[in-house]
Amino acid sequence: MNPIVYAIPIFFLMILIEVITTIIRKKDYYRVNDAINSLSTGMLNVTTGVIFKLGIYTLIYNHAALFSFDGDTLWVWTLGFLLQDFFYYWNHRKGHEINLLWAAHSVHHQSEEYNLTTALRQTSTGFLFSWVFYLPMAIFGIPPHIFLTVSLFNLLYQYWVHTRHIPKLGWLELLFVTPSNHRVHHAKNRKYLDKNYGGVLIIWDRLFGTFIEEDESYEAIRYGTLKPLRSWNPVWANLHLYTEMFRDAIKTKSWKAKLTLWFRRTGYRPADVATPMKMPDIHIYENYNPEASKGLKVYSLIHFAILVLATTVFMAISHNTPYGFNTLWTIVLALNLICIGWLLEKHTGLIIVEAIRFVLSGATIFVSNGIWIDLIPGWTWQFIITSGTVSLLVLQTSGIAKPVSYREGNSARAAGS
After folding, report:
1. 3-class secondary-structure state, position 74
2. The pLDDT value given to residue 382
3. How far from chain centre, in Å, is Cα 120?
4. TM spans, by residue (predicted)?
5. Calpha distance 338→403 (Å, rounded)
């Protein structure tokens, strides 16, 4: 079973604790729409990971390893941890410095909030290139099970540093990635850009000149990307920069630019397509927060929670289910998440969107049971029919799907809601 399955309840328990702490401290660190979008990209990350397992590290290790180390000795595990963290630093750093790599990594930085849901906001396309950075470990001879374990530890460690509630931690700031120095990494303030790339250890940033300390006397940190996403569509969040580069490659008349723009410095666009990007004034941006009624937010949360449960079950069984089944349900999950994002940013056609979503999900169960017998419990039919009917009636009769008027929206904004 995928070990992430065991971590999911812990992730959400910690999110609940942080939400309660945020309410008690009367802070504004959470928004329903932003949190759902972050978690949606995380769900796409783990489910697409089921169908896009490359296994290149093991392949290289089996055929090109220079040394054969005992995978049960402490020093090999320690070396594996240090090497993985070192190469993670360079993977992460180049993910900010090269157009093609930033197109993948930018997903993690798109949230304009900074909380534990941001930690789960992960790319679904990073697997395409990140493996390259760890090939030296495979060639050197670090066993695959050690690489996979320390990589998982690195990923899980980074979860807790995505919070604004924990202050600086004294001497720990000298050695480890902490909430303070990772807040700096997510900042789009000019002073903090492209700093603090470490995964577990901050010593790599100190060694290679990319460390900067959080300055609490400086202006408040603003989160997100310099060019805001402004969408709650988790699939578009993963693809929009690739699409933009592809369009630039088509438009430019320079063959050199067509071939090299992918590997140029982040933000580069051909001169005959766009003028060089200037550092924008981040203070002119309002966070993307399209108006939605409280009822619609509650409705979206309930249905999103069902999708979270479905994703957890899918991850728990995916190692025993056929590849076709896993692919189909990954696609259907993505379409469901797109619809949830649509609910939170559109004001018309919501009933039609939901009707299509329920029909699509029901049809997928029908197809699954027709091809892969007994993989989907029979009661799911009744659940889809019942929940779909109730949901459409609620949307139709309660008025929660009606647009928030311009006046109501501005009143809510003025009140700080």
Report:
1. helix
2. 67
3. 5
4. 6-24, 36-60, 131-157, 298-317, 323-344, 351-373, 379-401
5. 19
